[in-house]
Structures are given as structure tokens and as C-alpha cells.
């Protein structure tokens, strides 16, 4: 039984397919519109998950590992250089890079020398923006790694 918005209990009838653990996909099993495990009766949850209070046998565990995989987040480590360079590949950086090119090329007309001061200033701002973003992302990534290690 589940409670509605007023706190009254109501019966929830859920049609489970035969042998749901083998016939449903992971997305279907955890689709709250179809099967909301939080409001289902305990017996229905055990039926849906093809489990008991005593747990699973080794054979059942191996079958589920094959079907669902391990319960962990995938983690790919990327190069710090690549991460830094990616901060120079976004719309703001493109505008700054274009401004730097314009400062060198457009100011060179009429026999005037290139505007090196503006060019260097824009490049320094671009590098400062990328460095700050990179450092902040690394700090956040390290905090997440520490949290994941403490949870493990």
C-alpha cells in the first residue's frame, strides 16, 4: 500500500511480466512511470527483482553481472594537457582568439606597425582564463576523487 498526497493509503496494482528480471531491460525496470519501486509492496519488489530476503545465489549473481554489469561508475582519465587545451576550445576563447588576430592584422594597415600590446594583452587574458578554469576543474575533480575513495 502507498500513501497519496492527502496521506491516505491506497492499493497500487502493478502488472509484472512473467520472469521480469530476464524479460525487462534495466531502463524498463527502473522507469518510475512503469514500476515505482518506492511505492510497490515488498513482495512485488522481490518478485520483480527475482530475489528473496536471503539474497541471491552465486549463479544468480553471475547472471546479473553478465546482464547488468558491475554497480560502479566508469572512469576515464584524460591527459592534463588535453584538459587545459580544451579550455581554449569554446566560444569565449574563439572570440578572444579572433580579437587577437584582428589586433595584429587589422591594425597593420597604412604602414603602421602591428598592435603588439593589444595582441599580447588578449593572449594573456586568454591564458589566464584557461588557467583559472583548468585549476578550478582539477580541484573539483580531486574533491570528487576523494569523496569516491571515502565511499569505497
UniProtKB/TrEMBL annotation:
The parts of the chain that form a coiled coil are none
Entry annotated with the keyword Isomerase: no
Q: Where are the transmembrane segments?
A: 80-107, 119-135
Q: Where is the Cation-transporting P-type ATPase N-terminal domain?
A: 36-108
Per its UniProt record, what InterPro entries does this chain match?
Answer: ATPase_P-typ_cation-transptr_N, ATPase_P-typ_TM_dom_sf
Q: What's one Pfam family here?
A: Cation_ATPase_N
Q: Could you tell me the keywords of this UniProt record?
A: Membrane, Transmembrane, Transmembrane helix
Q: What is this protein called?
A: Cation-transporting P-type ATPase N-terminal domain-containing protein
**Which organism does this sequence originate in?**
Rotaria socialis
Q: Name the lineage.
A: Eukaryota, Metazoa, Spiralia, Gnathifera, Rotifera
